[in-house]
Design goal:
The complex is a heterodimer of chains A (113) and B (114). Chain A is mostly beta strands. Chain A has no helices and 12 strands. The model of chain A has no long low-confidence stretch (mean pLDDT 92). The chains are: A mainly beta (113), B mainly beta (114).
């Protein structure tokens, strides 16, 4: 079985400040990890994914994430956020032998001026 | 089309009625997924189709839920005898069918059961 925990349901931050959204996973086999973003009233859009290789993954809109196998984490970071980054962010995992994604419950990023 | 489309975008129904939700995947994608997004519950996997294989129905919450995929393309999710707890956004996604491939999501259907 696989599971994902997003530790923060909501993260308020001021514009141009750095942000980290936390994600921890559990799986008994090798994993593939994803971060998706959902803007209001829209579907999910892929930000970035880790499949193998370098543990630091860069995605769209200036986001990056680091895979840490020993801590079973895949935290999402951005050095300077914009108002337009206000959205809900979902971490997801799939494993070798699984066909579907398991999502965390999401973290709402609220960027204010 | 360029992306995954779903219809209707909104559906309001009365408790006990049946509803059908439609998903048009990206052309050429062999895998199709249905998820349910409820307030405070995140995204919950419902069912997965891959090519001509038997679907993975392990996420369907009850036998009131069913889905089919005709001709390896369009899919319909049917909820019979709807209940208020079925109210949610139902999301469809498609991919090339390999586990590490990106799933492309549609905009969802917001279902409200009165």
């Amino acid at each position: 079985a696989q599971s994902v925990t997003q530790l923060d349901s909501q993260v308020p931050v001021f514009e141009e400040a750095p942000v980290e959204l936390r994600c921890n996973y559990s799986s008994s086999v090798s994993v593939y990890l994803f971060w998706y973003v959902q803007y209001p009233n829209q579907g999910l859009q892929l930000l970035l994914k880790y499949l193998s290789g370098s543990t630091l993954v860069k995605g769209i809109n200036g986001f990056e994430a680091e895979f840490n196998k020993s801590q079973t984490s895949f935290h999402l970071r951005k050095p300077s956020v914009h108002i337009s980054d206000t959205a809900e962010y979902f971490c997801a995992v799939t494993s070798v032998g699984y066909s579907t994604l398991t999502f965390g419950k999401g973290t709402m990023l609220l960027v204010s001026p | 089309g360029a992306g995954v489309s779903q219809s209707p975008s909104n559906k309001v129904t009365e408790k006990g009625k049946d509803v059908e939700l439609r998903c048009d995947p990206i052309s050429g994608h062999t895998a199709l997924y249905w998820y349910r997004q409820s307030l405070g519950q995140g995204l919950e996997f419902l069912i997965y189709f891959q090519g001509n294989s038997a679907p993975d129905k392990s996420g369907l919450p009850s036998d009131r839920f069913s889905a089919e995929r005709t001709g390896g393309s369009v899919s319909t999710l049917t909820i019979q005898r709807t209940q208020q707890e079925d109210s949610a956004v139902y999301l469809c996604a498609s991919s090339f069918g390999i586990t590490n491939n990106e799933q492309f999501f549609g905009p969802g259907t917001r279902l409200t059961v009165l």
